[in-house]
Amino acid sequence: MVGSKHPWKAWIYLAPALVLLLVFTAWPIVNTIRMAFLVDYSSSAEIGGRVFEFGIDNFKDVINYQQFITCLTNTILLCVLTVPISTILALLIAVCLNAIRPLQRLLQTIFFLPYVTNSIAIGMVFAAMFNIIGTALGGENQLITTAGIINNFLGLFGVEPINWINAGSSYWANIAVMVVYIVWDALPFKILILLGGLQSVNKQYYDAARVDGTSRVRVFRKITVPLLSPMLAYVVITGFIGGFKEYSSIVGIFGEDMGPVGDAGRLNTMVGFIYDALSNKQGRASAAALILFGIIFIVTMINLYVSKKKTHY
After folding, report:
1. Residue pair 173/163 in contact by the 8 Å Cβ criterion
2. Does 230 map to a domain?
3. Domain for residue 195, yes or no?
4. Of 20, 40, 278, 311, which has the fewest beta carbons less than 10 angstroms from its beta carbon?
């Protein structure tokens, strides 16, 4: 036991972790704020001895940049579409898993596998599933040799092949593919959190409802959802934070062009915007990072405020 006589021992034990936090967390944050307020900052120019003026021109450049609205719109749209869908699906799957005793562990493992799989690799698999491979005959005609796994499945119901991600595909077809992938990728973590919450609920509530003859739908609405509200608030907040940082999944499906062939940048996000500017516009990238932080902070505060009104502890 560490007593008050030797507090320096505790600092020695904490020193390695504190040094790592200062070097790899605290300093990058401070440096990002510094670069964001240095006009037209470039690390190579700074090494050459150039002195930069202090100002907010980097923020103006970000807002006035022609692709900024596209990146912001894509980011917000993906968040608004994927977070509610993935949360509802995760809740339903968690309730079903909690009710199944045989093979519960096996099913939990299967549902959790996407969480420990590389997102770029999964994105490439999804791209292959939605891809249409054809042989050009000349002009605008094309002989489709394979419409892809998804189109072949939809064809069983009489649906014509859809151009999901290839050249000439529509924006909403691209968004539909991304929503499917992001929801599928987000489910494991949310299922794990909600299933853990379900297993910690006092079973007396359900026993009392069973004695009263309460329907399963009413039990779900009046008991399960209110008792899981802290976990639901948590997965919603973390879902929005993760959604605003979406980048690798789009690269996995569409590549570094962040869009179908012939329309590069169509699905670019705020994080993609930051990465694009890092090579020669570090000041603009830092300003965009702070803008993204501000958006995430505001959304998180709104979620926390709403969850206080709706959460039952």
Report:
1. yes
2. yes
3. yes
4. 20
pLDDT in tens, 254-275: 888 888 888 888 899 999 999 8
* Tokens found for residue 57: 């021109």
Give tens-digit pLDDT for 191-212.
989 988 888 878 887 888 888 7
Kindly list the distances between the CA atom of residue 165 and the CA atoms of 119, 190, 220, in Å, as whole numbers in the listed order. Answer: 18, 28, 39
pLDDT at 5 over 70: no
Looking at the domain assignment, is residue 28 inside a domain? no
Whether 171 is covered by a domain: the verdict is: yes
Residue 145's pLDDT is what? 67
Alpha-carbon torsion 41, 269, 167, 144, what sign? positive
pLDDT tens digits, one per residue of 131-160:
887 655 455 555 556 778 888 888 888 888
CA distances from 158 to 71, 153, 170 (A): 35, 9, 21
pLDDT of residue 236 exceeding 50, the answer is yes
Across the chain, mean pLDDT equals 84
pLDDT digits (tens, 9 = 90+) for 87-105: 999 999 988 888 887 777 7
For 95-113, the DSSP string reads: HHHHH--TTHHHHHHHHHG
Output the domain CATH number for residue 123: 1.10.3720.10
Number of separate domains in the chain: 1
